[in-house]
Amino acid sequence: MWDYTDKVIDHFKNPRNVGSIDKPDGVGQVGNIICGDALKLFIKVDSATSRITDAKFQTFGCGSAIASSSALTEMIKGKTLAEAAAVTNQQIADFLGGLPKEKMHCSVMGMEALEAAIKSYKEGGAPVVNELEEEGRVVCKCFGVTEEKILRAAKDNHLRTVEEITNFTKAGGACGACRADIQAVLDRHYNAASAVQEKAPFARLTMVQKIHRVEEALARDVIPGLNADGGSVELVDIEGSVIRVRLLGMCSGCANAGFTIENFVEKKLREQLDPAISVESV
Ligand code: FES
To answer: Among 142, 152, 217, 278, who pairs with 174 as Cys (CB 3.0-4.6 Å)?
Structure first.
């Protein structure tokens, strides 16, 4: 028997915001019934303020999946899209006073459904299936978990063991045939991470080195993604670990510019160069 908090039990027995929204502005889906958990999240967004005015969910899953979905909808109502996009799976678990470690995958499912719903809104409202389930090599066939999803869970939650990956993604939790492969994915990630750490911190590079590395990372990892939506970005200035950029094209003046800077440009540069980097738009 799992040791649930009173808040988890309350949100399971009295889930808030169950159902669907008529003419939603965004719909995100994650999981599938065959794998035991599925969540469909509907959001309504005030386009003038980019604020989520309503959120509802339909969940197939265990009590903690229902409680996590209920908590998520309560957490995001009233938030701007940028604020909602910053919600982590750990914050969903914290909202509920914690989840048993074996049930952390329920909070991950909520975060991924939210990301898909926000993407759906930005793309016009058609339902979006979480892309980590759609793209990449499937490592765990029992639960359809991709290498990308394992890496994301490991990075976001500092997971180091196969058991922890199972708790956060379910991968490895059935037949176990994928467990050696999950370990190999973790080994590759942490070996690469230690190689990055051996590099000099960004703040200690010369200005010429910084400019070179930032422009290289922008060209390789950021600009192609923005170009796909008719936008781009250029480097304007660097001060210490603060990188100032200017959004161009369709990204310039976009209502979601703050979201793009924080959740795409800054995220990519931190991954590629140094976690201490911050990015500002000018
Ligand atoms: S393939 Fe991963 S548990 Fe069966």
So the answer is: 142
